[in-house]
Every structure is written in C-alpha cells, then in structure tokens.
Specification:
Length: 84
C-alpha cells in the first residue's frame, strides 16, 4: 500500500478501484488476488470523520459509538476530545 500504480505487488487495482490481497511467491513474483474481501474495505475505516453537530443528528449511531468507546477504552487515543 506504499504506492499506487500498475505493478503486480500493489494492493490497489486502478481498473477496479479496489484494494486486493497480494500473494508474493518464494521466487519473488507477486500476484494480486482479485477477491473482494475486508482488505479492500480496511482503508475506508479511517476516512469517516463526524463532528459533534453530525453526531447529534445520529443519536442511535452516537449511542453505539459511545458504547464502543466505553468497552474499548484501551484502544482509544486519550489526547482526543470525546464526540458530541
């Protein structure tokens, strides 16, 4: 994922607009495995940012986020301000 292009060892497939797994063989050859899996969705995890005003419009989602934060507090960045 360090670069985007048309090489076989890259996860990004320009034609499909999707990330795929890459299998690298002992001989150094790599091939993209065109299977739609979580690999293609993981880059999207960091792309959604909601401000407090948006969270106020999504009360059920906010409850679920608050629950996740409470239950997984060890995974959270303690320097950040809470949502809403």
């Amino acid at each position: 994922m360090d670069r985007v292009g048309i090489n076989d060892d890259e996860l990004w497939d320009e034609d499909d607009g999707f990330f795929y797994d890459v299998l690298c063989l002992p001989n150094g050859r790599c091939t993209r495995l065109k299977v739609r899996s979580m690999v293609g969705l993981i880059p999207l995890f960091a792309t959604a940012v909601f401000d407090g005003a948006m969270m106020d419009k999504l009360p059920v989602f906010k409850e679920r986020v608050d629950y996740f934060v409470r239950e997984n507090s060890t995974l959270m960045d303690t320097d950040r301000q809470p949502l809403g």
